[in-house]
Amino acid sequence: MAQTLRNITKRYFVFSNDRLLVPAQADLSLGVNLLADLPIDVFAEYTEQVVSIRAIDKVEHHLVDAQKELLEHPDVRSVSLREIVSTMPREDFQHVAQAWQYAVFLRNHQFCGRCGSRMDRVQWEMAMHCHTCHHRCYPRVSPCIIVAIRSGNKILLAQGARQKEAGFYSTLAGFVESGETLEEAVHREVFEEVGVKVKNVEYFNSQPWPFPHSLMVGYLAEYDEGEIVVDGKEIHKADWFDIDNLPVVPPKFSIAGRLIEETQKRMAQDKI
Ligand SMILES: [Zn+2]
């Protein structure tokens, strides 16, 4: 039974040992609405710690973070964020990402970073406030550029330690530094990681990526000049791949997968 009161749907995002609890038989492809069917007795001990995180159009989102506690219930199972990103519709995953980022934020801001006093949650916005020195903190979002580089019918793909372990090649990505524009970050990261210069940098799309609090900002770019020289730290291998003969690449639910798909489309258009 969905937990509805006066036509309000309440969805509970319950994290236990860093995994989301869902009804045992839930089909994740149906999205976050399945969380309205979560049995509330599974988090009975945490009712005083329920945090309201969103209320739009008669749908309320509530967060319960049991941290390392294992909450168990015969009608419930737990799933990892990575499983959710690959199975739920994108907009639904973003709700889970938001809840998870709030959970991480609340864990990391129990005490004031300026004076060390205990912080309190602000009721009317997602923030933690120190009543001793009035320092206020908001959930951190770390912008990270990700870029697909094309040259003729080839795309530059690279492999760092994590991609090597997972057995695929991906587009280049890196965190934006303080004082830098997103476009400057694209040029700097590409040159630092693989030693080439790019031109015609064009915004594509963005994706929240809660591992733990990135915002991936996607760009398409064209090769300008230079030979590939990998930095040997973040990138171990990089090469130009024929668009019709790609290695294993990220799936299309990720922005990297969509950047590669868009590059493929544009090359096909150029051929016509
Ligand atoms: Zn303080």
Automatic annotation (TrEMBL):
Highest classification ranks of the organism: Bacteria, Pseudomonadati, Pseudomonadota, Gammaproteobacteria, Alteromonadales
PROSITE patterns tied to this protein: NUDIX, NUDIX_BOX
Family the entry assigns: Belongs to the Nudix hydrolase family. NudC subfamily.
An example molecular function term from Gene Ontology annotations: NADH pyrophosphatase activity
All copies of domain Nudix hydrolase, residue ranges: 139-263
GO biological process, one term: NADP+ catabolic process
Keyword Magnesium: yes
Cofactor field: Zn(2+); Mg(2+)
Matching InterPro entries: NAD-cap_RNA_hydrolase_NudC, NudC-like_C, Nudix_hydrolase, NUDIX_hydrolase-like_dom_sf, NUDIX_hydrolase_CS, NUDIX_hydrolase_dom, Znr_NADH_PPase
PANTHER family: NAD-CAPPED RNA HYDROLASE NUDT12 (PTHR42904:SF6), NUDIX HYDROLASE, NUDC SUBFAMILY (PTHR42904)
UniProt-listed Gene3D superfamilies: 3.90.79.20, Nucleoside Triphosphate Pyrophosphohydrolase (3.90.79.10)
Pfam family, one: NUDIX
GN (gene name): nudC
Catalytic activity: a 5'-end NAD(+)-phospho-ribonucleoside in mRNA + H2O = a 5'-end phospho-adenosine-phospho-ribonucleoside in mRNA + beta-nicotinamide D-ribonucleotide + 2 H(+)
EC number: 3.6.1.22
Keywords: Hydrolase, Magnesium, Metal-binding, NAD
Gene Ontology cellular-component annotations: cytosol
Record's protein name: NAD(+) diphosphatase
Top-rank EC class of the record's enzyme: hydrolase
